[in-house]
Amino acid sequence: MLYAVILNVMTIDQFLQHLSNALSLGSLYALIAIGYTMVYGILRLINFAHGDVFMLGGYIAFYCITVFFMPWWAGFAVAFCLTGIFGIALERVAYKPLRSSPKISIMISAIGASFLIENLAIVIFGGRPKGFEAPDFFSAVLHFGSVSIVAISIVIPILTAVLLGLLVFIIHGTKTGMAMRAVSTDLNAARLMAIDVNRVVSFTFGAGSALAAVGGVMWAIKYPQLNPTMGMIPGLKCFIAAVVGGIGNITGAVLGGLLLGLIEIMIIAFLPTLTGYRDAFAFILLIVVLLVKPSGLLGKNQIEKV
User: Fold this and answer.
1) Does the reported pTM lie above 0.85?
2) Rg (the chain; Cα; Å)
3) Pairing with 180, which of 109, 128, 131, 174 sits 20 to 30 Å away (CA)?
4) Structure confidence at residue 306 (pLDDT)
5) What DSSP letter does each residue of 111-129 carry, written as one string?
6) Would you say residue 304 lies in a domain?
7) Per the domain annotation, does 93 fall within a domain?
8) Burial 227-258 (b: 16+ CB within 10 A, else e)
9) CATH of the domain at 194
């Protein structure tokens, strides 16, 4: 039935073309959403500056390649590492001093950090958008019959799957991951078990920020333009993806990101007149999920500790 409806609206080749775009965009959302859900899972904190960390990853890669003339792979590696370090520093400065304070204080600090990073980026990088020249490898067009797909649209889902697999292995197969799960369950009890909570929190912020940098670089390649506020809307959408999937659940964050990308692209494909309302679909999805299943698709109902 669904197949017949699709054929009545568009050809199967057009459908596959849109599906590849949806998978690519959803994978980008998933990469960023993982950072949100990791931090929330450990500290019950929404890191509203995460979208700005995503933006910094793209800018660092841009300057490594254009100013320091690094090969693209080296520039990307430096961007991932420096952004991860920045995430750790952000937690130490903006969040750690308030860890025992009311949650509203940490949330205000996160919002303030977001505005500070954006405005510093405008001062340092300039407000004028910069073009990000993608390496030829990522710009190549691959043909599968009559379907044409840019290489970056294939690289992004594969990279997301690899990084998700690595993260799941770390969480479930290493001592650091065991400590993360312990801190997520009960932070104070983890301290009593001689777990270095500060180290676990720093690792979480570093890993989440590095994943955001991967998303920022991939975003800059797919949509080759950088500006200091580029992380605002994607950051909000990825927060929505994390909530939809079940915030605190890494697999749920990926599912939420893929679902959001699929809905966003497919609605526009079937109803082009709604293109101007593209960003609104994410918020509509959030409202529907919160009304039907407030804990998210893969989330569990939890009682908030006071």
Assistant:
1) yes
2) 20
3) 109
4) 47
5) HHHHHHHHHHHHHHH-SS-
6) no
7) yes
8) bbebbbebbbbbbbbbbbbbbbbbbbbbbbbb
9) 1.10.3470
